[in-house]
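Lab notebook: predicted structure, single chain.

Context: the supervisor wants predicted structures on file for every construct in the current expression panel, including those that have not yet been purified. This is the next one on the list. No modifications to the sequence; it matches the entry in the shared construct table.
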Amino acid sequence: MVKSLFTLLLVGAFFCFASLASGASLKDDLQNLLASETYNSNLNKINSLFSNEAAFRDSRGNIDYERVTEVLRQNGLLNLNYSGGANMTLGFESVGSPLLLMKVVSDALSNMGYKYFLTSSIENTPQMVRWSVFVSSRALVSPGALYSELLKANAYIKGIARVGQFDFAYVIDLSNAKVKTQEYVEGAMPKRPLEAYFYGVSGANAVEISAQSADSWVPLVKIFDKNLNLIKQIKEVEKRSNLNVELPSNAAYIVIDDAFSLENIKRGLSIRIN
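Prediction complete. Output recorded below exactly as produced.
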């Protein structure tokens, strides 16, 4: 029942963001960010602190949530720390690929120290993607810190709504998002991979892959476009010593793995992006 109630509140919050394409006002965002009692009892102070709205917008015209959060915390209006801990549900909405939204947000949360969180719901329609996660921590996810981490991926918060004491809903602009990949160094010596290889390949034509003679590589290669839509996959069932992968013109990322276990390529793969 509680979960169903939160889902309804979250969906309602997302519907409130329907006009975000034209840009939300700072006043609206402050009302969404703060508890109503805090906002109403400190209205004069808030109006004074945020009288110059332009000073709280970034170069793209979006609300600069890092600066907003900092001012609210410095003035005792936003408390993000709870000694007893907090169980949070965070909702994220965007237009585009579910995988892109989940990857960009997961990387941001992980960089903030939230390594473990559970998906509580996901909804994918032709118009939008909604993803909700459950996080348990002694500190609430800071909207300012999340804003800063998303910026690293060219993703932007377009609006925030507080839908519970510890629960927030975010609308994210992923139209120019770039996923963090592993650094590619041409000619690098192969070494044991801790995870599948993940490289950016925009503008490349092909990828040459060679396994070490003592390994038993069974190729699994996935190619994605800029929105992390899968556009090509190669999955072998037998050992290969090398593989040349031609890239589609819209290829943006490549994942190179073993079809069974990374143990099969424990000496590393030699990879050349052409």
